C-alpha cells in the first residue's frame, strides 16, 4: 500500500508505530514522524549501563512505596496490602504474589494456600517423638514401641499380634514369660499352617511364615536372649526335615518339640534351679536379693518348705518397685523380711548378708551377667564385702556367641522414663569377677557352676534338642 512507503526514515521506532496505523487504513498521517521524539524512542537510545541503573532506581522506588504503605496501615488486611503492591509494581499478577510473600515475612500473617481439592488443609497431627531427647551417642539403643495392628504384615498370625502388643506394653516383661508366650503363639501358627502346592514345609515355612512373625515381635520390642536361642533351635529343627517329609508328620514333630522345650527348659528348669539353690541356704542365714525375680522367689519359698529358718533382705528397684510384691509374698509365707525401697545404705546391708541371690536375663560367653539396672551395684558391693554372689539363670538364657563388657552394647531404653532431661536404661552388665557362681538346671558340682563354664553346658544341653 502507498501508506507503507511515505518517505519516513526506516528505523525501529517509526516502523513499530507505523504498522498499526497502516492497519487502520490511515496512510498519510503525521504520526510516524512524531513518534521519533516520543519517550519510548529516547529509552531505546539509552546505553545498557543506563538502562540497568534506571531499572534499579525504579525497583528501589517501588520498594519504598510499599514500605510507606505498610507503615501507614500496619493493621490493614492482606487484600489492601496486595492492592498497594499492585499499584507499586504496575503488574497485577506479580504484585499479588509479592504482597503475599512480604506480608508473611513482615506482617507475620500466615497465608494458607488452598489444597488441590479446594479445601483448606488441616494442620497435621504430629505424634510425640519419644526418642527426640536421646543423644546421638545412644541412638543405637532400641526401645519398645506399640505398633498398630493395621500396620503389621498381612501374614502375622493373630496370636502373635496379641503377644507383640503385650510385650510392647511390658505386660510380658521378664525373658522367660516372653519366651513361653512366643512359643505358644508359634504353636498356633504351626497348627494353622498349610504348605502351598509345589513347596515343602522345610523350605517354605521359615522364610514365608516364621520370619514375618519374628520381625513383628522384634519391632514391638527387641528380642530377649531366650527368644533368640529358642528361635535358632526352632529353625534348626525345621531345616532338618527332609524335603519329602509329609506335612502332617512335620507339623506334629514341631508341636511336640515346642512342648518338650517348654517342659524341659522352662518348667523343669525352674524347679531344678529352685531346688539346687535352696540347698545353698543354711539355717540362720541372711539372704539378700535385688528387686523381684521369679527364680529367687521360688528358691526362698522352697527353702522355707524344707523347714529352714532364715532372714531375707530385699533391696528394691526405686523405679519399678517390684520388690514390694516379693516382700509381701515372703512375709505371708512366714519369712522375716527387711525391705529397702532403694539402694541407699547398700554397703551395711550387704555386709550383714550371708549370700546374695540375683536373677539374670542372660549370661554372655565371657561370663558377664545381663540383668535389670541396679544388679551390678549390688554385686560389686557384695564382692567388696566378701559376700558370695550367686546368680540363678536357665541355660536357655545363655548366649554362647556374644560377649559383653559394658551396658551400652546390648540394652534397651525405658520408654516410660524418657524425658527431655534424662532417660533410663533397663539393664546393666555385671562382670564375671563379681559373680561367685551360677546355678542352673544341671546338677554338676551341686548346681553351682562357674560363669565361664556355660559353653560346655550349652553343648551338652542343646545338641540333643535339635536331633
From TrEMBL:
<keyword id="KW-0648">Protein biosynthesis</keyword>
<feature type="compositionally biased region" description="Polar residues">
    <location>
        <begin position="12"/>
        <end position="26"/>
    </location>
</feature>
<feature type="region of interest" description="Disordered">
    <location>
        <begin position="1"/>
        <end position="127"/>
    </location>
</feature>
<dbReference type="InterPro" id="IPR000649">
    <property type="entry name" value="IF-2B-related"/>
</dbReference>
<dbReference type="GO" id="GO:0003743">
    <property type="term" value="F:translation initiation factor activity"/>
</dbReference>
<feature type="compositionally biased region" description="Low complexity">
    <location>
        <begin position="114"/>
        <end position="124"/>
    </location>
</feature>
<dbReference type="InterPro" id="IPR037171">
    <property type="entry name" value="NagB/RpiA_transferase-like"/>
</dbReference>
<keyword id="KW-0396">Initiation factor</keyword>
<protein>
    <recommendedName>
        <fullName>Translation initiation factor eIF2B subunit delta</fullName>
    </recommendedName>
</protein>
<comment type="subunit">
    <text>Component of the translation initiation factor 2B (eIF2B) complex which is a heterodecamer of two sets of five different subunits: alpha, beta, gamma, delta and epsilon. Subunits alpha, beta and delta comprise a regulatory subcomplex and subunits epsilon and gamma comprise a catalytic subcomplex. Within the complex, the hexameric regulatory complex resides at the center, with the two heterodimeric catalytic subcomplexes bound on opposite sides.</text>
</comment>
<comment type="similarity">
    <text>Belongs to the eIF-2B alpha/beta/delta subunits family.</text>
</comment>
<feature type="compositionally biased region" description="Basic and acidic residues">
    <location>
        <begin position="55"/>
        <end position="70"/>
    </location>
</feature>
<feature type="compositionally biased region" description="Polar residues">
    <location>
        <begin position="33"/>
        <end position="45"/>
    </location>
</feature>
<dbReference type="GO" id="GO:0005829">
    <property type="term" value="C:cytosol"/>
</dbReference>
<dbReference type="Pfam" id="PF01008">
    <property type="entry name" value="IF-2B"/>
</dbReference>
<keyword id="KW-0963">Cytoplasm</keyword>
<dbReference type="InterPro" id="IPR042529">
    <property type="entry name" value="IF_2B-like_C"/>
</dbReference>
